[in-house]
Design goal:
- This protein has 239 residues and is an all-alpha fold.
- It has eleven helices and two strands; from the N terminus they run H-H-H-H-H-H-H-E-E-H-H-H-H.
- A two-stranded antiparallel ribbon has the order 1-2.
- A hairpin with a 2-residue loop joins strand 1 and strand 2.
- The chain is globular.
């Protein structure tokens, strides 16, 4: 009708709609990558590229130590040790352990109140894969939220065996050292398939702080943790 003003969407609503659209497009991009890696091996990961950029600031010619090996060519001892160390309920959980996240948050809050730097993580192997493969090592709530979304995608699309296979091939095991094969060669001069129970337990014990343990390989804590994992891994089932 003449004289009636057309209704226009206010700019805040347009902005909100655009942001929602960008968010959904980004999640579709992430979903596409998860679908791809469910069937094709990654040549690198987000954390590997991040580490390479840092290392090349001091040495532009440096390369990472990394060689992909299939699941069957990784020692079963290492598989058991890593599950025992990083995610005891790996075969049964849905990618996230909410109780572990809550306990880690409470612990970290107490550490902050006491002025201590020590932190505890509550991440499962699937969450660590989401972070290492597609996200970054940054610590903020936005990244953590995206990590949970990608973890949900990975858990629904990939088998437990595929999740563990990729994780073991891109996990950081020292400065510029990524994956089980590179770690086995770097520390023990053997292939990933040849790691014995003790060597596997020690590599698993290094995972929370691999760059530190690359430089300090015989600390009392590391040896004690290795012994604990060597005993615990005997009870672990693997996919």
């Amino acid at each position: 009708m003449a004289g009636r003003k057309s209704r226009r969407m206010p700019w805040p609503a347009k902005l909100a709609l655009a942001l929602v659209g960008l968010f959904l497009l980004y999640q579709l991009w992430m979903l596409g990558q998860v679908l791809w890696y469910a069937h094709f091996n990654p040549g690198s990961s987000a954390v590997m590229r991040e580490e390479m950029a840092v290392l090349r600031r001091t040495d532009p010619r440096i390369t990472l130590q990394h060689t992909w090996v299939p699941y069957a060519r990784i020692s079963n001892s290492l598989k058991r040790a890593v599950i025992a160390s990083e995610d005891a309920n790996f075969l049964d959980n849905s990618g996230v352990e909410w109780d572990a996240i809550r306990e880690a948050w409470i612990y970290n809050q107490r550490q902050e109140e006491l002025g201590r730097k020590a932190r505890r993580g509550g991440s499962t192997i699937t969450q660590q894969l989401a972070k290492n493969l597609l996200l970054s090592n940054s610590r903020n709530y936005l990244r953590k939220g995206e990590e949970l979304l990608v973890t949900f995608m990975i858990d629904r699309i990939m088998s437990k065996q595929r999740i563990l296979e990729i994780y073991l091939n891109i996990a950081e095991w020292g400065t510029g050292v990524f994956g089980a094969q590179a770690a086995a060669r770097h520390y023990y001069q053997v292939d990933a398939s040849q790691l014995n129970a003790y060597q596997a337990a020690k590599l698993a014990a290094m995972l929370p702080n691999p760059r530190y343990y690359d430089r300090h390989r015989d600390t009392r804590y590391l040896e004690g943790r290795t012994g604990v994992l060597a005993a615990r891994m005997r009870q672990v089932d693997i996919p």
